[in-house]
């Protein structure tokens, strides 16, 4: 079943986009003419009555969008895992990694392990498709896609400084 998205123009105010979940819940984003945004959850019995809302500035809206987009992509990739031998994994960069405060490219991760690093999660910030110039920091969460053997090799490379 496809995802249902509804667009509702709010004359003089802005626009409302709702996602209607498979359980019939409406979750919406109100985009005001001022540029402000609000994430809203609507009453199941009355899809025009807001039961909870969170105001978002532009950066927060973009971060939430990135997070939801990447979570959906990673979920889809994880779902492929068993069928095609691809897996996703999160690897935390420890404080004693030899790659700490060095560019991602210094790891030569793809060449050494065959694994793709698709994102770096740094606090509440998502760095999607990091370039080889991205500097690695303590406690970065590396999001990688590859074979089980490749991901094990990446863990040894980043965490245990082997390979």
From TrEMBL:
A GO term, aspect molecular function: monoatomic cation transmembrane transporter activity
Membrane spanning residue stretches: none
Name of protein: TrkA domain protein
InterPro entries (alphabetical): KhtT, KhtT-like_N, RCK_C, RCK_C_sf
Domain (RCK C-terminal): residue spans on this chain: 75-160
PROSITE patterns, per the entry: RCK_C
Superkingdom of the organism of origin: Bacteria
Gene Ontology biological process terms, A to Z: potassium ion transport
One Pfam family from the record: KhtT_N
Organism: Alpinimonas psychrophila
SUPFAM superfamilies: TrkA C-terminal domain-like
